Structure formats: structure tokens, C-alpha cells
Amino acid sequence: MNRKMIVRVLTKKHEDFVASIKDEEVRKLVDKNSIISGGAIASMLLREKVNDYDYYFRDMETTIAVAKYYVKSFKSKHPGVNVMPELFIKDDRVKIMIKSVGVVSEEDPGNYKYFENFPEEQGERYVEEVTNSISATEAVSEADRIPAEELEKMEKEPYRPIFMSSNAITLSNKVQLIIRFYGQPDQIHKNYDFVHCTNYWTSWNNELVLRPAALESLMAKHLYYVGSLYPLCSVIRTRKFIKRGWHINAGQYLKMCFQISELDLTNLEVLEDQLTGVDNAYFLQLIEYFKTRKEKDPEFQITLPYVASIIDKIF
Questions:
Q1: Same domain, residue pair 293 and 237
Q2: Per-residue confidence at 219, pLDDT binned at 50, 70, 90?
Q3: Domain range spanning residue 313?
Q4: Is the domain of 195 the same as that of 309?
Q5: For residue 191, which of 259, 239, 242 has the smallest C-alpha distance?
Q6: Which of 206, 222, 238 finishes a domain?
Q7: pLDDT surpassing 50 at residue 108
Q8: Which of 75, 138, 148, 187 would bridge 183 by S-S if both were Cys, CB 3.0 to 4.6 A apart?
């Protein structure tokens, strides 16, 4: 897909998303301060299916407004969910807190099944099915091959919150709102790991920026590590790229390992911070298990043998 077409797709997606926001002030902030970056642009350049559109915001005001809006929306529409999300703002960090489980879903509000309890493949499939739900308008052309019960599901409000974690809000219709980071594109990309994800589009000037290094990486399908605040997450993320036919040399792993060596993963806060961005619900279980042990025994220490034994049980 060429530059002009990508701009058209992103502009239309942004317009649709912004139009779904009922609060006028939040709608204006999102319209003026949004950045789409990450895998969506890479997928379009490679003519692959877009899994989701990752939204970032260029200031804290917009990030807080968006988080408040969708937390409030989720609460009002799902009063039967056992565990409700709460917004937490401290210093420069915007965070959604969900007691104990770390994530919350719109599904099964009366008899809530925690996402972590799904086997990994089933959980990933469930997220994809819900996130990829399309609007009723889009469904009309496919009505002849979509069961009635599925069409009924598609009548649900578009861009509704379906999952929340401490770092992000996942909406239906393939939109994910990142609240963990905010700022100008260069600031946001300091938290990125692989260069091919650093192309971006900005809502305030409708501009698509394609970085030469990112394009070279995409053409070769070569993972090039540029450094990240979350190298542990980066190592684990390589699995999904390799499944898609990407390549990575040993030197890139060595760079990640050097950064990991600077971390104290026996510190529960550090470990949680490093694993929260990993798309694997089982790690949430691991963190919650350690937290529970720490609450019962303040002297509890995370050690390699202990971590290995717990991981083997969870996985």
C-alpha cells in the first residue's frame, strides 16, 4: 500500500473513532492530539492484515481525559462486572488499576471469567474475535454469509471498551489506546524496541512519517533492535514476529540481553513493569502470585529456582 492510500485509511479510521466519542471536550482533545504508530502502518506497507491501530497521545491532559472517559463508560455499561477499573494518576504516570486480576472484560458481566484463566491460544483468539468486531454498517454487505446471532453482536456500539489493563484500553473495531506513554512521536518511540514499528501518523496535521530505517527493516523483514525501556518484553515479543516469517540475528538478542542485565528482576515492581506490556495473560498470574506471597510474608524473595518452579506450573 502506498503513502497516499495509508493516509486515507488512517484519516478515515481516525474520523470514525473520533465521531464515536460522545463527550465534546474529549472528542476535541483526541482529534487534535493523536498519534497512530506501531504495527498498523507496518502491516499496511507489507499489504498484510491490520490487527489493531495503536493510539498514543501527545500530552498528559489528553491521556487523562481519554482514560477517564472510557473507565466511566465501562462502569456505566457493565454494572454487573465483579471487578471494576479505577483510574490512578501519580506524578507523570496515568494508570488503570483493576484489583487483583489486572485486566477487565465486557464479556460475561454476571459470571465473570478472568482472562488469565484461558489457555494462551484460546485467550488470544478470544481477544482477536472481539477486537475485530465490525460495525452494523459494514455487516450489511456480508449479511448473506453471517449468522443472525453474529449480526446482532455487530449492532453493539462501535469503539466500546472491551479490555482494560494498567497500560492500555482496548476498544472494539481494532483500536487500542495506550495510556502508559504520551508525548511527541520521538518521545514515544524511546519506549519502542524494533525500528520497523517507528513509522507514525499525526492527527493535528494529517501527516504520515515513514522513517528510512523502518522501511529498510520492513523490506528485509529483519528485526533490528534500537533499545527499549522494556527489553524483557522485547525478547518475548520476537516470538510472534518469527512466526510471521521475520528474521533476527544473534547480535540483536545480545543487545537486549545487555539491557536486561541492568535490571533487577528480583524486585517485584521492576518485574511487573517489565512484563505488563507482554501479550501473555499468564504473566499476570505470575505477578499476582508473587504479590500474594509478599503480602503474606514481607521477607519473601524472588529467586531463580522459585520462579522456574512457578513458571513450569503456570505454563
A1: yes
A2: very high
A3: 223-315
A4: no
A5: 259
A6: 222
A7: no
A8: 187
